[in-house]
Amino acid sequence: MEDRTGSLNLTGYTIAMAKSDPAPRLIAENRKARHDYFIEERLEAGLALAGWEVKSMRAGRAQLAEAYVYVREGEAFLFGAHIAPLLTASTHVQPDPVRTRKLLMHRSELDHLVGAVERRGYTIVPLDLHWKAGRAKLTIGLAKGKQKQDKRATEKDRDWERSRARLMRRG
Q: What's the pTM?
């Protein structure tokens, strides 16, 4: 029988049940992507990483500001993501902070991305890096570029929402 604490109690023995992992822990975010693109679809991909890169990401030393995703020969790669090496990294490894990293995705997802990029003119944009079940994951977005007037309209809407919220608080 389960009690209020989420534990299972069977004839006097209490067994703690495993807690489900809450929202994924964020490592890095590409905020400019939402400003420059209309994100129409989101996908999650794994990353092929070296050991020093995982340690650096755990220390929060990753950036996606100038990163982009490119699909070549049926495989997806992350270019331009900067993962700064730690000072305590191994001496026999020569870390390259901006090396190209392979994205790990199912074949059907890759085929969908290839079709969207080549036929429909979409762009693949990295949105954020996060931990999920102890593994580093990259959220990518299928996006269309915004024109300058679209960016202005988005900014105008955001300003209106902010001032409306301010007016509602004041009563």
A: 0.70
43-93 pLDDT tens trace: 999 999 888 888 888 888 888 888 888 888 888 999 988 888 888 766 677
Backbone dihedral region of 136: left (phi > 0), alpha (psi from -120 to 50 degrees) or beta? beta
Domains detected in the chain: 25-170 (2.40.280.10)
- The CA angle 108-28-72, to the nearest 5 degrees, is 35
| Cα 138 to Cα 112: distance, rounded to the nearest angstrom | 17
Residue among 32, 64, 35 nearest 47 (CA): 64
Angle at 75 between CA 64 and CA 114, to 5 degrees: 90
Cβ–Cβ < 8 Å for 163, 61: no
CB 77 within 8 A of CB 70: yes
Q: How far from each other are the two terminal CA atoms of the chain, in whole angstroms?
A: 49
